[in-house]
Specification:
The protein is of the alpha+beta class. The chain is 27% helix and 14% strand. The structure holds protoporphyrin IX containing FE. Its cofactor is heme.
Amino acid sequence: AESFKYEGNKGQGGELHQKAGDGYPTMTTAQGCPVHDDQNSLKAGARGPSALEDHVMREKIFHFDHERIPERVVHARGYGAHGYFETYESLSDITCAEIFQEKGKKTPVFTRFSTVAGNQGSPDLARDVRGFAVKFYTQEGNWDLVGNNIPVFFIQDAIKFPDLIHSAKQEPDRGFPQAQTAHDNFWDFTSLSPESVHMLMWAMSDRAIPRSFRFMEGFGVHTFKLINAKGEMKYVKFHWKPKQGLQSVVWNEALKINGADPDFHRRDLWNAILAGDFPEWELGMQVFDQEFADNFEFDVLDATKLIPEEQVPVKIVGKMVLNKVVDNFFAETEQVAFCTQNIVPGIDFTNDPLLQGRNFSYLDTQLKRLGSTNFTHLPINAPKCPMRHFQQDGHMAMHNPKGRANYEPNSWEADENNPRACPAHGFKSHNEEVSGEKVRHRSETFADHYSQARQFYISQTETEKEHIRDAFAFELSKVERLSIRERVVSHLLNVDKDLAKAVGEALGFSEMPEPAEAAMETREDLVESDALSILKN
Ligand code: HEM
């Protein structure tokens, strides 16, 4: 190999073309001033000191000093790609959402996959939930479906989210661990919040160590509403089904991959797209009416429960193809701002208290993370349809109202820059009737934290069950306070006795704890029923 030989400072680089010309354009400052020398600061005399008037150096360092923005408070580590969504058939009977009106209609999308707990530099193969966030740039505004790769969630009410996340991130005194579930605070919180038991089963399953983003399902988790042109409402749960199939790694592989290539998942997505092997997911909908919701065994507003596919089959309505990597990771993947409140006519929220809190949280955090109310002006966040409103000013405003009108009502002439609200086509919230006392409590219909956890477990193959048992045993073996280990096992006793026993034995328990008091009744009839097909795959 040729050894490196220092040849002194050759000024602008000679034949290595460190100067403009031969096809290299002239470098400028951010103000556009052509730069004479980008490698040497301005000095008084050959050996300094440096001159304060060196605006080229000062501007360069000033900008560098401010390169970092806060990472996302959750889902900090992620990877995104562009693509499109294609509708298979018109769904105009159930929704007036513009993207679902015409068979074959294509809508641009940007999708970001992520882990939840780890910081930006954490390894990809952490045992963790994966985010699956899709921004549809529809002709009636951006619709963000901000989901996960697991169909249920740890908690039922957004007010508990800061506690859940505090417990899952680094412990506050020592600053570790992160991006893994193996620590006291996480298990302490979840074992004191029995509604998380169902999600824990999924999180300890192979689902939490996917082989790559391309082999994961996605779920909108909450129940949403679809509204048609007549104003009629149906409920809906959204699903993404990977056409590549569903694949995971085993824990030992995950550990090795994390050591050898912590960027394994992002590299996989990048390479697949560049090789023309575009990943595809089909969008599925479980659509049901009020009568089904009223008679369903669980509350459709409870995000810790799913709706079995054999009760409401998943109707496949279109596909998403990711076919373009980003041009710039920061400008696109980092600055993209997904938000559950970004919905469009034809889709609406339900009263799920987790969803209602999310609708506040994303916008709020993005103001801080992206630094200005005008982050919708960034190309990755800007709608690809006309935008007309009277919002103005603020940091970095790029599209202030043009002309005289910046308020309404106004009596200025009709033109492109003087929009009016449109009763016929504007977004209209579903006219659901609500009544009741203002109370701070959990609805009794949100009860039963174990039945669906049990159904998930018994739906697994023997090998998958073994992985779940091993995962609980491994993760809990890292928990130092023994009473927390016991509390977790006391919940597992309500899920499946063999599972609890196996975990207890692996942890060296001399005797098993009492089953956790099931604060809310467990449905015995479901205990006996067959495993759910949604869980099988
Ligand atoms: C970020 C999913 C619950 C607050 C995210 C992201 C996903 C996601 C996929 C990453 C978005 C991206 O790629 O930029 C979910 C799901 C939830 C859930 C599926 C439950 C069903 C919550 C709740 C809250 C919350 C209850 C707060 C009350 C946040 C915040 C971010 C975030 C603050 C960071 C957003 C940003 O900085 O851009 N969530 N989340 N999430 N989530 Fe959630």
